[in-house]
């Protein structure tokens, strides 16, 4: 199948790039790790400077950092920032090694589909709101459940800071994790293994190990990872996974800011796992229905590979091919519109007297025994030679109109002879290199336009002369040889009326 016609699902998008190589994702991963370490060092330096500038006692902060206490605003902000910097690290590595466009990490459209992202956010808010309400009602009707120890509501200033970080930073933290685990890793695996199950399932263990929970908690994380990978493949982009991930985390951290849940809890429960599975399933059904109804694209058409058009016969000329191998014009290149003989390729001469490429030779070599004088006139060449001594004189100047009062003996020395001889072979630009003069003076078969012959009688009738060309002198008739005008008397020679000899001019015949 032509790469330009092949459809690529999200996990195979890396292969839609014409410059894809199997080893390039590995190089991208190494560069991404290097950039991430560099950004982490910069973030640590900024955090240390900020802490030393605002607080004299750093021991409580060191204890909170060791325990990763997300209820502390400073530790919470540093944790979110350490995850958010994954986005620029991955972006820089991808810009260096590909694939391009970089937006293919987001969706099959090569960018974030913002309207679709908004739809997914609304759907996730509705589903999670219903799930939270149902869970609260179930807890009320299940007595005997031990009440979890809650940290309590923090101070107002701390609450405001935690809420601001939840609203402004948590969506970027969720997006960073999705870009790494569902964007980059899925496409790396998909470039090597075609079936989407490999791309969906193989990144799950890495995602689970990044969350320090007990087995039930990690099972919950694994279910979400499978859902996020599948919904990304099903909708052709990260929008749905980012929306669900962000709403889930924002809900937890917002409740934790008010002291309703413990954001540092690492233990899961069977009831919580069941609620999470049902919520995830309902979210998947709703998003898939919305995607089908809105016609969300799931695949991307591969980019055409550039073509070499060096003038080889059977291929379009360079002028018919644009950038990236696309044909210029709405219909592209049609090989039936090009003549292989007239538009010959370099190295072949289609006609005698041409150079490779079909262009006329700049200095065609004459036939043996003839050295014609080539005079360029209005795009044509007068290849007739010098006049012969025995040829009848002509009083016709090069322009083709007779000069009244000019005796035959005063004809210009460069005027062509009236009838070329058969022994004077002329070079030809057509395959038949023998002119009509070699066939007994019959000029009717030549390639000049047909027209009536000149009538017999003195003088020349009105009308333009024949154009210069092989076999015809300027201003002569093809039907009969040139008539020499009889000499005029002294009285007639004094008249030099330019209109004489033309009908309607009032000039008489001699």
List keywords for this structure.
single chain; 510 residues; mainly alpha; two-stranded antiparallel sheet; globular
Q: How would you portray this structure in words?
A:
Residues 308-314, 317-358, 361-385, 391-396, 398-439, 480-484 and 489-510 have low confidence and may be disordered. The protein is built from 13 helices and 6 strands. With 510 residues, the chain is mainly alpha-helical. The chain has helices at residues 24-54, 59-67, 73-84, 86-97, 114-140, 156-168, 170-192, 196-201, 204-209, 215-235, 239-257, 270-294, 490-493; strands at 7-9, 299-301, 354-355, 359-360, 375-377, 380-382.
Short description:
41% of the residues lie in helices and 3% in strands. With 510 residues, it is mainly alpha-helical.
Cα(first) to Cα(last) distance is 85 Å
Q: What is the SS-derived class?
A: mainly alpha
Strand arrangement in the largest pleated sheet = 1-2
| Shape descriptor | globular
User: Helix coverage percent of residues?
Assistant: 40-55%
| Largest sheet composition | 2 strands, antiparallel
The average pLDDT value, as a whole number, equals: 73
What is the strand tally?
A: 6
Number of distinct helices: 13
Poorly predicted segments: 308-314, 317-358, 361-385, 391-396, 398-439, 480-484, 489-510
Order of helices and strands: EHHHHHHHHHHHHEEEEEH
Strand content: under 5%
Radius of gyration: 45 Å
Walk me through the topology.
Layout: E1 7-9, H1 24-54, H2 59-67, H3 73-84, H4 86-97, H5 114-140, H6 156-168, H7 170-192, H8 196-201, H9 204-209, H10 215-235, H11 239-257, H12 270-294, E2 299-301, E3 354-355, E4 359-360, E5 375-377, E6 380-382, H13 490-493
């Amino acid at each position: 199948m032509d790469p330009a016609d092949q459809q690529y699902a999200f996990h195979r998008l890396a292969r839609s790039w014409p410059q894809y190589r199997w080893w390039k994702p590995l190089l991208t991963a190494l560069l991404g790790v290097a950039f991430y370490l560099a950004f982490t060092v910069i973030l640590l330096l900024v955090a240390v400077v900020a802490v030393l500038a605002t607080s004299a006692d750093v021991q409580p902060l060191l204890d909170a950092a060791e325990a990763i206490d997300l209820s502390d605003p400073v530790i919470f902000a540093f944790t979110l920032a350490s995850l958010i910097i994954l986005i620029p690290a991955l972006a820089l590595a991808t810009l260096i090694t590909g694939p391009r466009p970089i937006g293919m990490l987001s969706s099959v459209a090569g960018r974030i589909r913002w309207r679709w992202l908004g739809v997914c956010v609304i759907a996730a808010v509705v589903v999670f709101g219903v799930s939270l309400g149902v869970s609260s009602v179930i807890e009320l009707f299940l007595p005997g459940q031990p009440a979890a120890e809650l940290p309590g509501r923090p101070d107002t200033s701390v609450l405001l800071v935690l809420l601001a970080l939840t609203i402004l930073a948590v969506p970027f933290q969720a997006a960073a994790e999705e870009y790494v685990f569902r964007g980059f890793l899925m496409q790396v695996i998909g470039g090597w293994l075609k079936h989407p199950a490999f791309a969906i399932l193989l990144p799950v263990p890495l995602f689970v190990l990044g969350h320090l929970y007990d087995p039930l908690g990690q099972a919950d994380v694994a279910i979400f990872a499978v859902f996020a990978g599948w919904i990304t493949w099903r909708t052709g982009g990260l929008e749905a996974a980012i929306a669900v991930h962000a709403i889930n985390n924002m809900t937890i951290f917002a409740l934790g800011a008010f002291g309703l849940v413990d954001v540092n809890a690492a233990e899961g429960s069977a009831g919580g796992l069941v609620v999470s599975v049902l919520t995830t399933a309902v979210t998947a059904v709703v998003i898939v229905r919305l995607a089908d109804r809105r016609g969300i694209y799931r695949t991307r058409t591969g980019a055409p590979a550039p073509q070499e058009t060096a003038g080889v016969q059977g291929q379009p000329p360079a002028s018919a091919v644009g950038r990236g191998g696309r044909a210029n014009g709405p219909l592209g290149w049609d090989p039936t519109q090009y003549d292989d003989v007239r538009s010959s390729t370099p190295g072949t001469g289609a006609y005698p007297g041409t150079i490779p490429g079909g262009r006329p030779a700049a200095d065609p070599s004459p036939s043996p025994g003839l050295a014609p004088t080539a005079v360029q006139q209005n795009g044509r060449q007068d290849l007739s030679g010098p006049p012969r001594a025995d040829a009848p004189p002509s009083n016709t100047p090069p322009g083709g109109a007779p000069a009244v009062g000019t005796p035959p003996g005063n004809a210009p020395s460069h005027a062509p002879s009236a009838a070329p001889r058969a022994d004077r072979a002329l070079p030809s630009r057509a395959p038949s290199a023998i002119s009509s003069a070699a066939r007994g003076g019959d000029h009717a078969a030549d390639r000049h336009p047909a027209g009536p012959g000149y009538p017999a009688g003195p003088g020349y009738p009105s009308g333009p002369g024949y154009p210069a060309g092989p076999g015809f002198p300027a201003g002569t008739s093809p039907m009969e040889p040139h008539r020499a005008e009889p000499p005029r008397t002294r009285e007639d020679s004094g008249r030099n009326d330019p209109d004489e000899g033309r009908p309607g001019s009032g000039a008489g015949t001699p």
